[in-house]
UniProtKB/TrEMBL annotation:
<comment type="similarity">
    <text>Belongs to the prokaryotic/mitochondrial release factor family.</text>
</comment>
<feature type="domain" description="Prokaryotic-type class I peptide chain release factors">
    <location>
        <begin position="18"/>
        <end position="34"/>
    </location>
</feature>
<dbReference type="InterPro" id="IPR000352">
    <property type="entry name" value="Pep_chain_release_fac_I"/>
</dbReference>
<dbReference type="GO" id="GO:0004045">
    <property type="term" value="F:peptidyl-tRNA hydrolase activity"/>
</dbReference>
<feature type="region of interest" description="Disordered">
    <location>
        <begin position="97"/>
        <end position="134"/>
    </location>
</feature>
<dbReference type="InterPro" id="IPR045853">
    <property type="entry name" value="Pep_chain_release_fac_I_sf"/>
</dbReference>
<protein>
    <submittedName>
        <fullName>Alternative ribosome rescue aminoacyl-tRNA hydrolase ArfB</fullName>
        <ecNumber>3.1.1.29</ecNumber>
    </submittedName>
</protein>
<feature type="compositionally biased region" description="Basic and acidic residues">
    <location>
        <begin position="114"/>
        <end position="134"/>
    </location>
</feature>
<keyword id="KW-0378">Hydrolase</keyword>
<dbReference type="Pfam" id="PF00472">
    <property type="entry name" value="RF-1"/>
</dbReference>
Length: 134
């Protein structure tokens, strides 16, 4: 499934907090880190993708079915906001891709024979390593 999805503004809930870690006065005074909350059930995503998102074993998905993404890489609130949205879109894209179904195949007769010949050769080599009897 090829999904080109961008979330609507009403689907995203941003809250701005102070970033953790080093940074001195800027970190202590400015709320540049972003918490993005995205409710999967209320979203406009197709039902199949909603189910896959809820089934993810990802710590960013809460028990209530809300994706929480924290972005605090840059000192700019707008850049952190864009980063959080980009990570949400990447997360949705990752579950939108369905892997190709694997079909079991049987080895050919020739490949079976080559494998057995190789095993027989190896067996002869190992058998020749024993003690020499007189």
């Amino acid at each position: 499934m090829n999904l080109h999805w961008t979330p609507a503004d009403w689907e995203l809930d941003f809250s701005f907090i102070r970033a953790s870690g080093p940074g001195g006065q800027n970190v202590n005074k400015v709320s540049s880190a972003v918490h993005l909350r995205f409710d999967i059930q209320r979203s406009t995503l197709p039902a199949v993708i909603k189910e896959r998102l809820l089934a993810l074993s990802d710590q960013r998905v809460t028990n209530e079915g809300v994706i929480v993404i924290k972005a605090q890489e840059t000192r700019s609130q707008e850049q952190n906001r864009a980063d959080a949205v980009a990570r949400l879109i990447a997360m949705v894209q990752s579950v939108a891709h369905t892997p190709k179904a694997r079909r079991a195949t049987k080895p050919t007769y020739g490949s079976k024979m080559r494998r057995l010949e190789g095993k027989a050769q190896r067996s002869d080599i190992k058998a020749g390593r024993g003690r020499v009897s007189e």
